[in-house]
Every structure is written in C-alpha cells, then in structure tokens.
C-alpha cells in the first residue's frame, strides 16, 4: 500500500513539473520571436560600417511593404509581414525556419506572396489534404529540399457514447492545459471514440501527460503517425439562387435558408465571416470562390456567378453538410 501511494505521488509530481515547464515555455508568441530576431538583425546591420548592408536592409523593408499592398485586412497583413521577414532571414542565413500553425487567410496570403520570391522556397504542411490550419516552412531553395518533420498527430480516445463532445469541447480542454492556440493544428472528430489532433512535435509528450479529460470524459492521448489520420472529404450540396445583388446578406440568407433580417442581426453580432474574416457590414459583396461561414450554421462556398437577361445574378451555392 505504501509503495502504491509513493508511486501515485511521484506520478502527480511529475505531471505538475511537466505542466509548469510547458507553461513557462509554450506561451511565447512566435511572431514576437520573429520580430525580436529581425530587430536584432537590423540593429547589427545598422551599426556596421558597411553602408551597402544598410542599403540592403532598407531595400528589403521596402520590398516587404510593396508585397503587402495587396493584403487588405490589417491583422492578416501584420501576420503575413512576420512570415515574410522570417523567410528573408531564412534565405539570407541559408537555414530553414518554420511558422506556427496559421489560420486559412494568413496561410493563403502568405503563400501568394512567398511564391513571388525567387530566392525563397516555401512548403505547407497540415497533416492531411483538407487541413485548414497549417505550418509554412521557408528557406533558400538549395536548403529546403524535402518536407521537414514539423507536425505530429495524437489520438485522444475515451468513451463519448453517453456524452458526445464537440470541436469546441476538445479545443477548450487542450488549451486548458496551458498551450497557445498557434501550436495546435486541426482537430478531427471521431464520434464516440474521441478525436485526432495535430500539434507541433515538441508538445506531444506534454499533451500525453497533461490532457486527461475532455469535459467530463476521461481520455488517453497516444501519438499516431500522420498516415493514420482518419479524415473524410467534406460532404456538400450544390444549388442555385437568383438574387438582385451580390450582397452577403442576400446570398447567404438564401444559402443557409434563414431570413434576411436574422442574418443581418448575426452580421452585426460578428457571427458571419467571409474567407474566415469577420464582417460587420451587411452590404459587403461576395464573389466566386468566397467562403462564407456563419456561427452555429456551417459554411457556404460561392461557386459560379452569372448575370441573367434581367440583370440579376444567378449564383451557385455549395453548402457544406
């Protein structure tokens, strides 16, 4: 009995120490570290007697500003700027650097800009083809020759038969261990069995110890190979609507089968997003390829848009089921 008590006490102590260590290291914002490193690099160059180096820094900063002109959303532009600065650093120093998990709009804008740079190669990894949150690895083309090992997967299992848990339940429990959101990729729900989660490799052992419950369900975390991720392509339903305008309140209300007034209220509450960016104006217009999401109702992709003989718009809507 004494031996069992000692063993239990040792395990609890180990969990507390591991948790404390992770909390002290994992809350660091990667963007801050990128900016700090870049600032140090610029300071070292500016104090150098080599004037050509200073001119190179000014040219690089100017180029970043030019590249960011096409990014409209300020918060997205700021994150893309950090990615660009990191890419430049990686190329100049002939090293490979990795971002945290990026949101879809930041990922999209970052890759569009990075693809225009001849001296930078970028690779995207999210764990599976439909992954939304992904990491970007950047480096000089001569250095980045294969996919780096920068993501890992965990299976979170438990008996969820009598207490089903949502994506938000798993996310809340994971973040409750103290890790930062940007260290976590997608969460793939597995019904009664639990979920599979994608994380940065350095958090695997920590989560295997710290994550022991989702809501009220005890869980076990096990590392799994990425090839074992059990995902299904999204199911969709396509249909068309005829609208007088391409305003989001008109098109989305038809797509989600709700009243226009209700959708306007949801827009005012910040519950409607276009391409993952919240909107607050009902007159915002949509275009082919846009993704409209409404909290609690799912997502809607805008397909082909054509003008009718009467001057209205025939819009193809693809509803994610």
TrEMBL record:
Domain RNA-binding S4, first and last residues per copy: 246-308
InterPro entries in the cross-refs: Nucleotide-bd_a/b_plait_sf (IPR012677), PSII_S4 (IPR017506), RqcP2_RBD (IPR040591), S4_RNA-bd (IPR002942), S4_RNA-bd_sf (IPR036986)
Signal sequence, renumbered to the chain: none
Keywords assigned by UniProt, alphabetized: RNA-binding
Pfam families tied to this protein: S4, YlmH_RBD
Superkingdom of the source species: Eukaryota
Gene3D superfamilies in UniProt: 3.30.1370.160, 3.30.70.330, RNA-binding S4 domain (3.10.290.10)
Any GO MF annotation of the entry: RNA binding
NCBIfam families linked to this entry: PS_II_S4
Protein name, as recorded: RNA-binding S4 domain-containing protein
Organism: Pisum sativum (Garden pea)
Organism placement in taxonomy: Eukaryota, Viridiplantae, Streptophyta, Embryophyta, Tracheophyta
